[in-house]
Amino acid sequence: MSKPGISFLSRDEIEDIHNATLAVLENTGVKIASKEALDILREAGANVDYQRNHATIPGHLVEEALRRAPKTIKFCARDPKYDFILDKKEPHFTTSGFAACITDWASGERRLSTSEDLARWIRVVDYLENLHLSWMSVVANDIPAPMRGLIELVTALRNTGKHIEPEAFDAREAQYEIEIAAAIVGGKEELRERPIISAIQSPISPLSYDKGSMEASIEFARAGIPVVSLTMPLAGETSPVTLLGTVVVTNAENLGNLVILQFASPGAPVIYGAASTVASPRTGVCMIGAPERSVIQMTLAELTRYYQLPCMLAGGNSDSKTPDMQAGFEKAMTLTTLLLARGVDIVDGLGAIDSANTMCPEALVIDNEIASAVMRACRGLEVNDDNLAIDVIHEVGPGGIFLGQKHTLEHYKTEIWLPEISDKNTYTTWQKTGSRSMDKVAKERVRAILTTHKPKPIPEDVDKEISQIVQRAEAEVLRKS
Question: Percentages helix, strand, coil for the chain, rounded to the nearest 5?
């Protein structure tokens, strides 16, 4: 199979980026608010200054961490039919995450999201065939902050059989999330073998790691839960304005995190993650639908191929406030360039508008279609006698019609992409069927999904156990507060 692809960096250029990253880690270093993480680095041989919460990491520790890190990672799901492998062979898609707002299911007005919105959103993700996993796309603003993460995780697990990516703000929350996931698969050792969750944990750019998030990452790593180190530097503000400088900061934050987790738990499943982008020169606001972001993400894709690390990179994003033409071109651009970069294991960003501050149900359905089309384009073609079709060309001959040929019927399904919501009819037929725009068709599809689709339920006894874990966590949180 011949697949189209983009590879624009030479081996020497990639190694220049790698060496620049090593220089940053060894000379500039990183700030870490966690004594546990600093202890891990000191014992590994890093130079640690506890008073400044600072560490410099020698290059040989990075090389050792890269040797220890697994090159393939299995993402399991509550329903095993949704299991998949991160091995740089096929892309998988997920939503964007942790937006405080959603466009209302009926009115389309932007408002704060709730736990019920999260439940509905996850049900739509469960239905859409090109959404392979989901993180907590919208925030449950109606839940008190100390309990929010656990309630969001349970809500997601109850509404999909697919893999889920939560976040934890400290080690104790991570322990409870691990306990909940273990209850579903039958125990903590079973969870290590079948991780149905992975953790999104983000460094703070530039080159800093929060205490709670860092110690949560260590808990997840030691439990065998994949950790996505999702770095988010913003060129011109929290990283250099040059795209390459932003790549170096992104890479340093990922490799610094990798060192900590590999020396905390050798062989821990760690995913290289990035949502790096640029700031607007006019306003300073984050631009996630910018062409520069595509260049950054494609460069990072090449780096992860060089390191042979599983990765989760950003695409399918838009700064538009509605699922309009701007959203369409920005999402298609960032998805297409990222998939052409090859080797991307997970693409995050589907369903997001408003610079990922708002999730939009119609956009999620449209993005599912865009992902399907882009995957078809990136699949390429296979050069063989059957596909060259010399015999059928000869049989039909000049002026003939291929429509009724057996060869045509056999290849239609595999060769020609068929959309679910895009209109490919004549103008007259489009008028007769209601002259509906794509966003209206998508809204109708969302309504139909929520009306008819029922995710596979959690067994009653397991769900009862999960409720008891949540009650224990709530009692502990209330006691502390």
Answer: 50, 15, 35
Coil/strand/helix, residue 237: coil
- Picking from 365, 290, 317, 306, the residue whose alpha carbon sits closest to that of residue 341 is 306
Contact 247, 296 (CB under 8 A): yes
**466 alpha-carbon distance from chain centroid:** 26
The predicted pLDDT at position 97 comes to 87
DSSP states along 321-345: SSSSHHHHHHHHHHHHHHHHT----
Residues of the chain with pLDDT under 70: 481
Q: What is the DSSP string of 376-389?
A: HHHH-B--SHHHHT
Going by the DSSP 8-state scheme, the letter that residue 99 receives in this structure is B
Strand arrangement of the beta sheet that strand 286-287 belongs to: 234-235, 277-279, 286-287
pLDDT at site 413: 83
Query: Residue 303: which of 247, 232, 241 has the closest Cα?
Result: 247
Contact call for residues 93 and 347 (beta carbons, < 8 A) = yes
| Residue that is written with structure tokens 């966690």 in the block | 34
pLDDT of residue 398: 97
The span from the first CA to the last CA of the chain, in angstroms, equals 59
Residue length of the chain: 481
Based on C-alpha coordinates, what's the Rg of the chain? 23
Tell me how far apart the alpha carbons of residues 380 and 400 are, in angstroms, rounded to a whole number: 27
* β-pairing verdict for 199-201 and 227-231: parallel
How many whole angstroms from its chain centre is CA 219? Answer: 21
Measured CA to CA, the distance from residue 140 to residue 142 in angstroms comes to 5
Going by the DSSP 8-state scheme, the letter that residue 356 receives in this structure is G
Per-residue confidence (pLDDT) for residue 2, from 0 to 100 = 79
Please, are residues 71 and 307 in contact by the beta-carbon 8 Å criterion? no
pLDDT at residue 265, rounded to an integer: 98
Residues 6+ apart with CB under 8 A from 297: 274, 276, 313, 314, 315, 334, 337, 338, 341
